[in-house]
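User: Design a sequence. Structure:
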């Protein structure tokens, strides 16, 4: 790995520069802007209210159907996590980002109980 990425990335930039007839720096900027635009589009799709609502309903339905075999503390934590769908990272936009402390506050459990669940 080099300071700003792999040699494969540099090869893609060089190929883009040759193809477009631009400088290396312009090609790198273009590829970077295209990547950012793609990530913003993907985030908008995954974070759309309808998409999140459908995903949440699916998870809650699974929880209610298969919930007989799940301990109550785990059900409470899973329910609280479904309400936080869409708070994931850039890598996993539809996922959930939640600390144990936040989960404990959302469920009313102690931090140790939330972590165990």
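Assistant: Done.
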């Amino acid at each position: 790995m080099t300071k700003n990425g792999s040699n494969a990335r540099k090869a893609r930039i060089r190929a883009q520069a040759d193809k477009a007839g631009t400088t290396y720096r312009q090609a790198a900027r273009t590829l970077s802007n295209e990547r950012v635009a793609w990530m913003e589009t993907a985030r908008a799709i995954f974070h759309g209210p309808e998409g999140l609502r459908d995903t949440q309903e699916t998870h809650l339905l699974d929880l209610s159907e298969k919930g007989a075999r799940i301990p109550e503390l785990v059900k409470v934590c899973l329910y609280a996590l479904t309400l936080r769908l869409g708070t994931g990272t850039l890598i996993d936009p539809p996922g959930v980002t939640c600390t144990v402390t936040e989960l404990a506050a959302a469920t009313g459990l102690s931090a140790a109980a939330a972590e165990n669940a």
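The chain has a mean pLDDT of 78. The first helix runs from residue 7 to 20.
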